[in-house]
């Protein structure tokens, strides 16, 4: 932060805010805009943070996505000539959490903003940065005004954050510790641009927080807990706000697909379109197909292909499948999670990829991170490098392809980024394999307080290697708490029968459960004891990925 204009704090009776005329109404296209951050701003925010904090680690795109998705009303961007030049992120938390000893990683949920509590009575600011090249536009002051307006609108007790003291290391020999440094800054005997700016904007120092941000070398890990109290709210004791039991209905359909021999691509296309059409008639928001559902395309080959030849042949269909399913999504007005399809990537490796075709025409990809021993042996499939939420018109979703659902850290990553629905396309040959996916899917729903939707293949494909028999009972799973089905199952299909299973789920129930449920798995994590470190794709471009050699034959089927 580079600006330090004084912002007077209102103390009189609450007045109605004047209606601001949009700049575009009077002066044409406006150059400066302050608004809530959106997923499309992620790249611009990441670039801004790198410019501002050259001496500290930058945010990953996943962390910024999580900050926005977990509390979109609390994240703001400033755009000047359509470039992101300012960003601030906040969350609501309880007073006890805000004022107890903590560090930045712990309070922010390792940077994802995942500790946002809609029942919290304080607004906690954990990011504020302004492009140092932008002078005289008062970006920082404008962003602080947005924070204050949000606190007033929500009737919150106030705003609290831990501010940096970047001139501390430079003046360390002149003072007797960080507490003395703070006193000298308040007395205007030492200049600190960040603290002076915050003091000028009506914030009062509460105490020094030691060890708050180890990466902040200039402050030597110290920060000052700064407080602004809402002048329109008077409370003697902390209160906990209640979260209304609202309705955010989403209708999901899971297709339990019969693996059948088809005469040509057109017949395969008609079979898929049939279920898309039916789900659309039921006004479903999503339909999900099973893992490797495109293996049916090998059934009309003149001869049985070797595993390597089969994968190569399937990969040739990739552009056509993406185009056709994307077209279906738009024509039938439904979001399609297109199971998974083996695809040869630009580097020559084969990956197992889920194509998510949204009804707005966009196509997203999620690679399978963990190929099974079976996939590595038969098809030499390699795992992808990243997993992130996919933005949709009903909020962020995640996709875990079969075996990936058995690795808890992947689902936790998606939940931290804001996913409330996780789709699991799977392909298993036996009840044991299926139950591994089923039980892990239920566990992911409980520990992340989200919905998990499973979709599997049934039947068999003659002359197609590795698709001899299939076992599935597709289902829509929920957390186990009072707002949900008593057994944690919103709906499920009959075993090994081709069918479409549809259910309405209420995303607002998840918000309530995360804030006020019997157990609160997301909120009750011990951030002071453990965390997951992600090696982001592209972070170490010179470091080769380890190549796992194919293993010997194993039980056919995933999961």
TrEMBL record:
Residues 32-231 form the N-acetyltransferase domain. InterPro entries: Acyl_CoA_acyltransferase (IPR016181), C-N_Hydrolase (IPR003010), C-N_Hydrolase_sf (IPR036526), GNAT_dom (IPR000182). Residues 12-21 have a biased composition (Basic residues). Residues 250-507 form the CN hydrolase domain. The keyword Transferase applies. Residues 1-28, 538-559 are annotated as: Disordered. GO terms for molecular function: acyltransferase activity, transferring groups other than amino-acyl groups. This is GNAT family N-acetyltransferase.
